[in-house]
Design a protein that fits this description.
The structure is a single chain. By secondary structure, the chain is an alpha+beta fold. It folds into three domains: 111 residues, Serine Threonine Protein Phosphatase 5, Tetratricopeptide repeat, CATH 1.25.40; 67 residues, Immunoglobulin-like, CATH 2.60.40; 111 residues. The strands form three sheets. A four-stranded antiparallel beta sheet has the order 3-2-5-6. Helix 5 packs antiparallel against helix 6 and helix 8 packs antiparallel against helix 9. It is rod-shaped and about 115 Å long. The chain starts with a helix and ends with a strand.
């Protein structure tokens, strides 16, 4: 080891005394540092990182900061190591063991420069919501969305990214190796799944008994009062049925046109980089347009099915007349009538 245990221990004592530290704290820090260095030499890097960082919290020496950084590197805490290296370069080396402390600072600067390209970078983008209103975290620690969007330095491994907006929460697990740069988009989806109405069922009217034969000498050209009421009601019902068919047909046309437009907009979004419903923030207007077209298509479908079903029901259950015999038919996006006059 380049820096002897004796040099670090004496440096701890002299530097701490000069700084006015409590003797008990100095003695404890020196012992913890010694244990940390021994753990490092034995390859127990987790223990070394813990004990050296605790000693450094009490006594700020370049040599201790340097060895703390090296222990962090061994356990994969590259971000923490870069900060420990940086602190080592900024400390006052002091007058005792100055040569060793200054050498530790030079080594820290060189090792940090070699370490920085190894630190992974995570880029997080927010879609479907105002990024300023979102609270984000990485591995449970709150992080500014602005920092995440510009590239956030993280340790290698699997990082859990979470974004919250009110009661909504979106999470993503991202695995990064040393030196990797990865981007992830967290999408907030506010629309609910539309409910499609069941098609209206038609009812076949029960057969009615034939009217009694007219008495001899009576005229059959005129309708009786009940028959006149029935004919009047039947005309109104048929009129309402035709209106229902018209409204339903318009709804089905709207459904077909809306569905085609929505599919076209979805294809455009996928061509521009959307993958598995994950889009970029600057595509929010196109995403809103796509959702509006879907809603319009769904409304058209519901109106078409209900209107057409109701119209057919009214026409098929209307009282028979001696007029034209007509039958309605429906297909996706179209509605029509066939029969004979």
């Amino acid at each position: 080891m380049k820096y002897t245990l004796r040099a670090i221990a004496l440096g701890l004592l002299l530097s701490s005394s000069a700084a006015g530290q409590d003797d008990t704290a100095v003695t404890t820090a020196r012992e913890i540092a010694r244990q940390g260095l021994e753990a490092y030499e034995a390859g127990r890097y987790e223990e070394a990182a813990d004990k050296l960082s605790r000693a450094y919290d009490v006594v700020k020496l370049p040599t201790v900061a340097l060895h703390t950084a090296r222990a962090f590197v061994k356990v994969g805490k590259l971000v923490e190591a870069s900060e420990a290296y940086l602190q080592a370069t900024r400390l006052e080396p002091g007058t005792e063991f100055q040569a060793e402390q200054e050498q530790a600072q030079r080594d820290a600067e060189e090792e940090r420069a070699a370490l920085m390209p190894r630190i992974p970078t995570l880029v997080v983008k927010i879609a479907g919501a105002d990024a300023k209103a979102v609270t984000a975290s990485v591995d449970g620690k709150v992080v500014s969305v602005a920092l995440l969007g510009g590239g956030y330095l993280v340790n290698p491994g699997t990082r859990k990214v979470e974004a919250k907006l009110g009661q909504q929460s979106v999470t993503e697990d991202v695995r990064l190796g040393e030196g990797e740069r990865k981007s992830v988009t967290l999408v907030f989806e506010g629309q609910s799944t539309p409910t499609v109405a069941e098609p209206a069922t038609t009812t076949t009217p029960a057969p009615t008994a034939a009217p009694p034969a007219p008495e001899p000498g009576t005229s059959t050209s005129a309708l009786t009062e009940p028959e006149a009421d029935s004919a009047s009601d039947g005309g109104i019902q048929r009129t309402a049925g035709w209106v229902g068919l018209g409204v339903g047909g318009a709804g089905l046309v709207l459904w077909g046109v809306g569905a085609l437009a929505a599919n076209g907009k979805k294809s455009d979004l996928e061509d521009n980089g959307c993958v598995d419903h994950h889009c970029y923030t600057d595509q929010s207007d196109d995403i809103d347009s796509y959702h509006s077209l879907r809603t319009l298509s769904t409304v058209g479908f519901i109106v078409g099915v209900v209107g057409t079903g109701a119209g057919l029901t009214l026409l098929l259950t209307a009282p028979k007349s001696s007029g034209p015999e007509l039958h309605g038919w429906v297909s996706p996006g179209l509605v029509g009538v066939r029969g004979r006059l």
